[in-house]
Design goal:
The chain has about 475 residues and is α+β, with helices and mostly antiparallel strands. It folds into three domains: about 130 residues, Jelly Rolls; about 140 residues, no CATH class; about 140 residues, 2-Layer Sandwich (Heat Shock Protein 90), CATH 3.30.565.10. It has a five-stranded antiparallel β-sheet. A hairpin with a 2-residue loop joins strand 15 and strand 16. The longest helix is centred in the middle third of the chain and has 71 residues.
Length: about 475
């Protein structure tokens, strides 16, 4: 880079559209403070993220503007139009905003720039155009504050929906456990009553021991009972009901349902009949039925409490309660926890497919923020599909990055809208159903916070949001 000794005259400055309407005094100030700086082809004029010190105006040559996305440089502008500007483009905010270059600018050919010191230009610009500065500040800060408020409101609404869904999911197993516990109390009372009836029949001690041993053997098979189709279950209940009717056992069909559900058949009941006298058969069978039902109810309580524990663990994983904000993150655990939290919002006819690469190592990141990304992408996919479709969650390794893909079979995003989906407040949903901040927040979390990349590919029946996250700690993290 070389700085020429000459400066532009007021007449030369007036040829640039930015300065065409300045008065003579203003032009004189710019002429006295602006340097003409030459850059050879390939030289960096400004570097994204570095302190913004200069406001640059292209005089001649060709420049290219780029941004870092997922660690890769993406060109956004290439132009040779005289008078285009770059660098400290928000200089007018002064100390109210940390002044850093939002993009990188390189000279494609030999270039000359008119460069103004940002701090000094801001001071005089505020004197020249106080009302314009107030309007610009108000627009910038207003949009930023509005976005923060709307995003906070959106997070609260999302939290309310997730809480309602989680409460609903917790209520089902809790109610099932309560019902099972109440039924269990009745079954224990029935077992005591039938045991008393058996004792009154003066059973021989050896017979009672044999009956008890047989009961233990048959009850132990309850947990291993095979799943039966409706037709198979009906046939087995008919066979057991006929067997019980032949032996004058009252309530034969009720008992048949209990025994078939436990995986018992006529051969098992015949062993009971061979163990006791005919007069004691019905009390023995009812005692066995109570024992079988008790085992089934205990299994139901165990399953229900296990589901509650699983939901609580999923909620803890989702919220990252009591965990460090930045840590090695298991992407699969976050995706699974998000699915659990969104179970109440997932229509029954939507099929969820998990295509996970389990060899994928943990990635460095903020798991709570990544879970919010998964929430936004999955909710959008569910909304796009409506009541039916397939939601696919896929993970894979893509070079030195982890790939997470959320795909749906919805109608797709039209080409003219695809380039705007990550813009703040842009939404394709009807009025009142979306703020248009979900994908903007997701983009900033993935790209800014994690140094990754978020993009979309879409056609009717196949829309994929692809998140790429570095497997190693980004330098700027």
């Amino acid at each position: 880079m070389t700085t020429a000794a000459q400066r532009l005259s007021a007449a030369e400055l007036r040829e640039l559209f930015l300065f065409a309407d300045l008065d003579e005094e203003q032009l004189a100030w710019v002429a006295a403070h602006a340097d003409v700086v030459s850059y050879p082809a390939g030289a960096a004029v400004s570097v994204e993220g570095e302190p913004a010190r200069c406001f640059s105006v292209l005089l001649d040559g060709t420049l290219r503007m780029s941004r870092l996305v997922g660690g890769a440089e993406v060109e956004t502008v290439r132009t040779s139009h005289r008078g285009v500007y770059s660098g400290a483009v928000q200089f007018y905010m002064g100390d109210r905003l940390e002044q850093r270059y939002p993009t990188s600018v390189h000279a494609v050919t030999d270039c000359r720039f008119l460069q103004l010191p940002a701090a000094e230009f801001a001071e005089v610009f505020r004197r020249w155009y106080p009302m314009a500065v107030h309007l610009l500040e108000g627009m910038f800060l207003g949009q930023r504050n509005a976005a923060e408020l709307v995003a906070q409101r959106e997070r609260l609404l999302a939290l309310g929906k997730l809480t309602a869904g989680l409460t609903h999911e917790l209520n089902n197993p809790a109610a099932a456990a309560t019902r099972a516990a109440a039924a269990l109390r009745e079954r224990f009372a029935g077992m005591r009553h039938k045991l008393a009836l058996l004792s009154e029949g003066r059973l021989d001690g050896a017979v009672l021991r044999s009956l008890t041993g047989l009961q233990e053997e048959l009850v132990a098979r309850v947990g291993r009972a095979p799943e039966l189709s409706a037709l198979e279950r009906g046939d087995r209940e008919d066979a057991l009901g006929d067997w019980l009717d032949e032996r004058d056992v009252s309530g034969a069909w009720d008992l048949a349902g209990v025994f078939v559900g436990a995986g018992l058949d006529t051969e098992d009941l015949q062993r009971v009949a061979d163990t006791v006298e005919p007069a004691a058969l019905e009390p023995a069978l009812r005692w066995l039925a109570y024992a079988v039902e008790t085992e089934s109810l205990l299994a139901e309580i165990t399953d229900s409490t296990g589901r509650i524990s699983g939901l609580v663990d999923a909620a803890r994983q989702y919220s990252q309660l009591d965990r460090a904000p930045h840590q090695p993150t298991d992407l699969h655990a976050g995706l699974d926890a998000t699915l659990v939290m969104l179970a109440a919002r997932t229509p029954p006819d939507v099929r969820v497919v998990k295509d996970y690469d389990r060899s994928l190592p943990p990635v460095p990141g903020y798991p709570g923020e990544l879970n919010q990304v998964w929430t936004n992408l999955i909710v959008n996919a569910l909304d796009a599909m409506g009541d039916t479709g397939t939601l696919t969650l896929r993970t894979a390794r893509d070079g030195e990055q982890a790939l997470v893909e959320v795909a749906d079979t919805g109608p797709g995003i039209p080409e003219e809208l695809r380039q705007r989906v990550f813009e703040p407040f842009f939404t394709t949903k009807p009025v009142g159903q979306g703020t248009g901040l979900g994908l903007d927040v997701s983009y900033r979390v993935v790209v800014t916070r994690h140094g990754g990349d978020l993009r979309v590919r879409s056609q009717p029946g196949d829309t994929r949001f692809q998140v790429r996250l570095p497997l190693t700690e980004p330098p700027a993290a």
